[in-house]
Amino acid sequence: MGVDYGLKRIGIAMTDMLHITSSPFGTIEGISMKENMLKILEIAKTNDVSVIVFGLPVNMNGSEGWMARTVRKVIEEIKLVSPIEVATIDERLTTVQAERILIDEGDVSRKKLKGLKDKIAAALILQVYVDTHPSV
Q1: Under 8 Å CB-to-CB from 101, ≥6 apart: which residues?
Q2: For the stretch 105-115, what's the b/e string if a residue is b when 16 or more beta carbons lie within 10 angstroms of its beta carbon?
Q3: Which residue from 12, 86, 95, 126 could staple onto 22, CB 3.0 to 4.6 Å apart?
């Protein structure tokens, strides 16, 4: 399961049964860190997820800002309450890439981008993980 964690919305993606390709799954409207974590875990358990892959929002210079620290805190909380494996992938520019896919290739208006770009970004994050971890 791929996660593009945001304060307003959280994009979720899943892989196919063979773990070859990722697809957008849905979004969660952000509430609080605890509620967000519980919703992520609920989706993971319902869909028999073995690994949750979070996009880590690293700055362009490689440093981690407050949002990366927020994502790491959510991961720490998940690890305290769940045995599901958690991984991270550098997500630099995935949201920008998702917007480009939707606008250029999908002909989606900027107005409709809100929920779509988050789950597309999650799919991009998960696809990187799937491509670099073929044994999953």
Answers
A1: 120
A2: eeebeeeebee
A3: 126
Q: Which amino acid is at 77?
A: E
pTM: 0.85
**CA triplet 6, 10, 13: central angle to 5 degrees?**
135
CA dist., res. 127 & res. 6, Å (int): 19
> What secondary structure letter does DSSP report for 50?
S
Q: Read off the tokens for 13.
A: 């993606």
What 3-state class would DSSP assign to 11?
A: strand
- Quick check: helix, strand or coil at residue 132? helix
Q: Average pLDDT for residues 92-108, to the nearest whole number? A: 61
Q: How far apart are CA 114 and CA 132, in angstroms?
A: 28
pLDDT of residue 117: 79
